[in-house]
Task: structure prediction
Amino acid sequence: MTGPTVSSAPDATTAKRLIAHGDAATNGAVGTRQWQPVEWKLSAGVQVGPAVNAATQRLEEAGITTARLDAQVILAHVLGVGRSWLFAHYEHELAPAHAECYMELIVRRIEREPVAYLVRHKEFYGIDLYVDPRVLIPRPETEMLVDQVLTEAAVRAPQPLTIADVGTGSGAIALAVASNVPNAQVYAIDLSLNALAVAQHNMERHSLHDRVHLLHGDLLTVLPVHVDVVVANLPYVNTSDFATLDADVRNYEPSSALVAGPQGIDVIERLIPQLPSSLNPGGVAILEIAYDQGELVMALVEKLLPQTTQLELHRDYHGRDRMVSFQL
Ligand code: GLN
Result:
C-alpha cells in the first residue's frame, strides 16, 4: 500500500471529537442539536482481538451496520497487514502508537467518514486504487460500465480500441479498461484538477501512463481525437435525493461529483450533444445513470440524437436502472 497512511492522522492522544448528538451527520447542518464529544479509548496493552471487539461494539452503538468489517479493515490498515493476519494474531499486543492511530480512525468512522478515505484505498475491478476526499469512492456498481466497455473491445478486436472516460475521478474506469485491454488508448478527462492529481497517482502506481492520457477540461471539449467508446460516470444525483443520502456520502464525498440539478441530468444533458463530434462512426456511448433515470435519459438521447441505434437500458443486480448505452 502506498500513498499517505496513518502517519498523516492528526494527534490522537484523546481520540475525542465533536459530533451532533443523536445524528450521525457531522459536517452538515447543525440546526439546534446539542454537540457532544465522541470519546473512545482502548486500555493500554490491548490485544488485537479485544481491540476489534471493542471497536465493533462502539461502531454498532453509533448505528454503523458494517461495524465488525470496518473495525477489522481499519486495524489491518493501522498495522500495515492484511485482514486475515488479524485472525491469526488475536493476542498480539498493540503498540501504543498503533492503539492511538486506531482510536483516532475509529472515532472518525463514528463520525461517518468513509472507510475508503480512512484507509486511503479502494478496490475496483480487481485494481487497488488510492482514494481521498478529492475523488468519489468508486462503487462496485460502476464495474458494470467496465464490463460493457470490455464487451465493445472484444467485438472490435483485434482492432485497437480508443476510449474516453469522461469525469474520470480517481481514474477507476480508465485504469480498469487500460489494464484489461492491452491495445486500448484511454483518454481520462476531468474538470477537477484535484481529481486528476489522484488519477495521475493511480496511473503511475499501475504503470499505465503510456496508454492513459489525462486531460483537464469540461466534458468532451478537450478531447484531441475521435474515439470508439465514450464511457461516463458523471454526477447524476438530483438535489432532493442528495439531501437523503447517507451522511458518509453527503458530508465527505465531493458533491461536484454527485449532484446535477433538480432532475440529476444537468451534466448528462450537456454531454449528449457533444457525442457526435467525438465518436468515430459506429462509436458507442455508455453512461451511468441514477436508479430511476432510465426513461428520462433514454427520451433525452432520442430527442437530442435521433440518429442513435441500439439504445439500451441496463439494470443492475438490484434491478435498478444503472446504465444506458447507444451507438452513433
Ligand atoms: N452512485 C453514487 C451514489 O449514489 C452516485 C455517483 C454519481 O453521481 N455518479 O452515491
Q: What stands out?
A: The two ends are 42 Å apart (CA to CA).
